[in-house]
Every structure is written in structure tokens, then in C-alpha cells.
Amino acid sequence: MKKVGVLISGRGSNLRALIAATRIPDFPARIVLVISNIAEAGGLARATEAGIQTCCIPHHGKTREAFDREMDVQLKQAGVEIVCLAGFMRILSDWFTRQWQGRLINIHPSLLPAYKGTRVHERVIAAGEALSGASVHFVVPELDAGPVIAQGSVPVHPGDSPDVLAARVLTVEHQLYPAALRLLAEGKVRLEQGLAVFSG
Ligand code: GAR
After folding, report:
1. Is position 108 annotated as part of the catalytic site?
2. Contact 165, 199 (CB under 8 A)
């Protein structure tokens, strides 16, 4: 049973999906700590309701690495073995990504390597794409560039607004993230020489 820490900055719908999945008895991981850099993040209340320890670490007035080191202390104190970024809107320091290399995953609302960064749905619509989706990937120092563990796609319909497309992509995210976490927790995927290597 792997101990998981989840980092959030917002409403935490992916966190909710992870909480629900990890409560299923045969799930190979449990969430032991949720950290937010934003005190008002809705996800903190979700975690508290679920009886999970939470912690808010504001990032203001700190260097990126000093902030990351504070998170690292909390994660290690809680015995965390896998860190999931779930709508965590801070770029992590190289130091943190190296500390947690192979044990740090993120969900991104695009079919990576397409549409890294922010304002994804707006850019997907503007480009006239017919397909979008979500990706769970290992986190490496370069933003949104780590090897992909799992992807799911959705159609982009004519007339979609960014919000409508975001909601469609989220339904995939909520399936995909628990599935990818399961693979990692069971040791069926690992990061090896910059690649996601699958077994079993
Ligand atoms: C999700 O769509 C997630 O993929 C995205 O933020 C949203 C968070 O929603 N993450 C990123 O854009 C990271 N670059 P949630 O708080 O409801 O899970």
C-alpha cells in the first residue's frame, strides 16, 4: 500500500476522483496528505471531509526552491512515497523534481506533447483541433515534458467554448488519473532513463 501526497491549488475535482478510487479496498495506494499553496483552495475542504491530513504552504515571498523544500519536509514527515500533482499551478524547482524523480506525476488537460503550459482549451479551439484529451505523465524539470503514462481523448465539437471543452476533458481526467496512479503504485510503470517503461 503506497502512501500518496497530493498537491493542489484549486477546486480539486481530480483530488476527489483520487480520493474515491483510493478508498476502493484493493486499490494499491492511500492518500495521506494534501498540500495546497492557496489557503482558499476548495480541494482542502474535500480532503478534510474525507479525513485526510491537509496543509497549506503559501508560496509568496519565497524562492521556488525554498517553497519546494517546505513541501518536501511535510511530504517526508507524512511518509509519502508517491506525489500526485492535481491542478497544482506552480512550476516546481529542478531540486524538487529530482528528489521525487520517478515518484512524481502530473495530470495535464491536453494530449501531450501538444499544448503544454496554460490556456490549453482556448488554444486547442483556436487551432481548430478535432481531438483533445488529457495526459498523466512523470514530472521532469522541463515543464509538461515528462514521459506519458496514460492518455485519454475526447472530441472537440464545433462551437465548443473553453469551459465546455474543459468539462468534457475533466470527465476523462477523473478516469485516467486513478488508473495511472494504480499502474505506478503497483510497479507496472516506472521511469527509466527518461522513458516510461511498462511491465506486467
Ligand atoms: C485540471 O483540468 C488539470 O488537468 C489542470 O487543472 C485542472 C484542475 O482541476 N492542470 C493543469 O493545467 C496543470 N498544468 P481540478 O482542481 O478540478 O482537479
Report:
1. yes
2. no
Binding-site residues, ligand 1, Cβ < 6 A: 10-14, 86-87, 107-109, 170, 173
Residue 75 to residues 52, 104, 184, 194: CA-CA distances in angstroms? Answer: 13, 12, 18, 24
Substitution site in 108, 110, 175 for ligand 1 pocket (most atoms within 8 Å of beta carbon): 108
Q: What is the CATH number of domain 2-198?
A: 3.40.50.170
Per-residue tens of pLDDT for the chain, all 200 residues: 999 999 999 999 999 999 999 999 999 999 999 999 999 999 999 999 999 999 999 999 999 999 999 999 999 999 999 999 999 999 999 999 999 999 999 999 999 999 999 999 999 999 999 999 999 999 999 999 999 999 999 999 999 999 999 999 999 999 999 999 999 999 999 999 999 999 97
Ligand 1, from 170, 171, 175: best to mutate by most atoms within 8 Å of Cβ?
170
Query: What is the domain partition of the chain in residue ranges?
Result: 2-198
